[in-house]
Amino acid sequence: MTMSTTGDRVEFTERKALTKTRKKMPPELSILLVLLGISVFFEVLGWMLVGQSFLANMSRLQIIILQVSVIGIIAVGVTQVIITGGIDLSSGSVVAMSAMIAATFAQNSEWPKLIHPGLTDLPFIVPLLVGVGIGALAGFINGWLITKTKIPPFIATLGMMVSARGIARWYTDGSPVSGFTEGFAMLGNGLDRWMPVVIFLAVAAFFHVVMRYTRFGKFTYAIGANPQAARVSGINIDAHLIKVYTIAGLLAGLAAMVAIARIKTAQAGMGMMYELDAIAAAVIGGVSLSGGRGRITGTVIGALILGVMLSGFTFLRIDAYYQDIIKGGIIVVAVVVDQHRQNKRKKS
Amino acid sequence: MNSASAELMSVTDAIPVKKAFNSEYVLEVRDVRKEFPGVVALDNVSLRIRPGTVHALMGENGAGKSTLMKIIAGIYQPDRGEVRLRGEKVWLPTPLAAQEAGIAMIHQELLLMNPMTVAENIWIRREPKNRFGLVDHVAMNRMTQELFDRLNIDLDPESEISELSVANRQMVEIAKAVSFNSDVLIMDEPTSAITEKEVEHLFQIIRDLRARGIGIVYITHKMNELFEIADEFSVFRDGQYIATCASSDVTRDDIIRMMVGRDITQMFPKEEVELGDVVLSVKNLTRDGVFRDVSFDVRAGEILGFAGLVGSGRSDVAEALFGVKPADSGTINVFGQDVKITNPHQAIKLGMAFLTEDRKETGCFLPLDIQENIQAAVLHDQYVDGAGFVAENVLEDRSIEICQRLRVKTPNMHERIENLSGGNQQKVLIGRWLLTNPKILILDEPTRGIDVGAKAEIHSLITQLAHEGVAVIMISSEMPEVLGMSDRVLVMHEGHVTGIVDRSEADQVTIMDLAAR
Ligand SMILES: Nc1ncnc2c1ncn2[C@@H]1O[C@H](COP(=O)(O)OP(=O)(O)OP(=O)(O)O)[C@@H](O)[C@H]1O
Ligand SMILES: [Mg+2]
């Protein structure tokens, strides 16, 4: 056997010193491009088919972002759940349950006063706390079930989805609740009607900071990335998961308050499929269903993409059935693209 | 070539002698280049493997060994260059194509499917079918048993992978690779998780396969294995091919110099340290069916080695100490106080740190970056302010210090750990625990998969920690490491402590004797 190369080529360079670097370009940029692309798509079709602009229409933009706000608030919580490697199917029903119960504390006393003159309106904070609290309680129960009984999140939250919807119906025997105090209605219409957007952006910004810069966020990512390694690193997984599910429930409760304040009525059937829209917003925004990956900013853009699509279809007068069919397709495409991106990143 | 495998005659019967072909080499790689975003993993690399030889690949962590092997096994496609098999150019777009062409690979990271049985893992996609076209589990278990009998492996085909120790999983991977009856068998650090006894077992299998005319590519960082098993070796550095030599032509020091570019004078920089008080005292620790009546003390500044065969319960004791899987009975006394440790958080609070044995299962956060991996165990204390904000700027400095000291090959701290080579991942995990400033440091196979240069660095680090009064428990299957670094060696056999030997009396024979008792 031979020496096929001599030692001549053996020369040595000291390894480059490691330096501090900014984190890489945020992956949201590509999703942002998709959002722009879709908007331009509707703009062009708008001129071609309807003869008017899609974007240059302030009231349409306002409607889009108002519609996005409720789903967006929920999606901020759902995103955190998904990053831990879990799922929350109960958000839509929790919205209905919180809405129905809180609404009865938000009613104004105009009519009842005729019979009970002593009645007064409750300040808006009471129904708000009730709604948010009920949402948080539902989330806590989800988290408790998942960590203490070790049933999969899918099953635990599926149970909550069915039960919470039942409670929403049972609470008023199915009849809607309306006639809210002015203070409460401000949650949906205040600040010149932008209140839902303000709340949504505040929630998103707050949790963006939490997820990026605090220990709480780091724990969430670590648990989703590898629960066993997280445990060995000293993270109390059960306690943390309960917190994350509680936050998700709490945000569903908050979303419910914003929603009923805006549409001025609460119904047991409301919030149907919101959980799926919230999950879709997260997934379109690049949150990985296998856990450990994703960002709030991505989810916000994902929610906007859903909103623009919905509004665009209505603008083009596409039939609602087709809208759902197309929406389902787009969600699947988003996941496929995401998988593909991840594989590519791994392979080369 | 070698006839040392007479006792494995049955293997000889079962595996047909390979047919001759029209080339001196069974496998040839020519001018291969592979780039990842920001890294040239391989640059103009060539490699030639003769049939019936064991060809070792040597190189520092991140040199490109695994990448080259993954190209041969159809997992990556080269940007440039070609792979030739039995003299003919082949195109291997998928691992399946490579398998069918006659190339089998044992990966550096275990790739078994945990909830499935041993037999199901080995025969996946090749399951025997019954006449209804369904999987014939009886036949599959029988085939597995036959394979194990041939290879002298003592495992139940029907046990679930998740029940097996890392070492036994490694044996399953080896059996699986052999079962393909391929012309080329690639082994990427097959011995990093197994003890001398299994290594000897593996070498018998390898010698036998070699006698069958199979070309074997063997990657290891254990120098002593090299001269025992390899006929030829090739050295790589930073993605470049350096040289190919016959192992009879060179010395161990020559190879190290080719790999790392400097001499490593002292492999085990052990220093005598003034021992302090007993900081950890364990009495009659028992976990039913796993280990029984384990008792020992460790002093500040002491390095207590844990030796024993695979499955002797060394890692289980460590897991019990750290609260990963708490013991059923017995006492643990830390700094003079009896403590109950039921989860790792409590252990960390007591000043303990635990580098686990399986970096993929219980170590790495694969989707996260290097810094996030390093800082995972210190998010409870000084690096977090009252409002919960993490001092990432400071932690980035700390991470850089650690990565520089341990020679982690990476462009920066925000690379995903998934993209690091195996040895570099291991260094990052060691860094995670160094950052916690532990008083009691438990290391389970600390230098698993780490190259010679960095190994010496880690050993000197451990020595330095001992100097500073840290009590170290070091589980290692590498006998030179245990003997070279430990003040005392605790030997386990089937869940029992069979002896605690002082440094002055510890040698290979005594320890092997106690381990096999
Ligand atoms: N998927 C990937 N993406 C980006 N970089 C990668 C990827 N895989 C490997 N690398 C880089 O390529 C280089 C070679 O890695 P490789 O795993 O081949 O090293 P190795 O020689 O096997 O090291 P070790 O001895 O530690 O196993 C390393 O710098 C590594 O960071
Ligand atoms: Mg490797």
UniProtKB/TrEMBL annotation, chain A:
It is found in: Cell inner membrane. Keywords: Cell inner membrane, Cell membrane, Membrane, Transmembrane, Transmembrane helix, Transport. InterPro entries: ABC_transp_permease. Belongs to the binding-protein-dependent transport system permease family. AraH/RbsC subfamily. This is ABC transporter permease. GO terms for molecular function: transmembrane transporter activity. It comes from the Bacteria. CDD domains: TM_PBP1_transp_AraH_like.
TrEMBL record, chain B:
It comes from the Bacteria. One of its GO terms (cellular component) is plasma membrane. Coiled coil: none annotated. It is a peripheral membrane protein. It catalyses: D-galactose(out) + ATP + H2O = D-galactose(in) + ADP + phosphate + H(+). Residues 27-263, 273-513 form the ABC transporter domain. InterPro entries: AAA+_ATPase (IPR003593), ABC_carbohydrate_import_ATPase (IPR050107), ABC_transporter-like_ATP-bd (IPR003439), ABC_transporter-like_CS (IPR017871), P-loop_NTPase (IPR027417). Keywords: ATP-binding, Cell inner membrane, Cell membrane, Membrane, Nucleotide-binding, Repeat, Sugar transport, Translocase, Transport. PROSITE patterns: ABC_TRANSPORTER_1 (PS00211), ABC_TRANSPORTER_2 (PS50893). Its EC number is 7.5.2.11. One of its GO terms (biological process) is monosaccharide transmembrane transport. Gene3D superfamilies: P-loop containing nucleotide triphosphate hydrolases (3.40.50.300). It is found in: Cell inner membrane; Cell membrane. One of its GO terms (molecular function) is ATP hydrolysis activity. Part of an ABC transporter complex involved in carbohydrate import. Could be involved in ribose, galactose and/or methyl galactoside import. Responsible for energy coupling to the transport system. Belongs to the ABC transporter superfamily. This is Ribose/galactose/methyl galactoside import ATP-binding protein. It comes from Parathalassolituus penaei. The lineage of its organism: Bacteria, Pseudomonadati, Pseudomonadota, Gammaproteobacteria, Oceanospirillales.
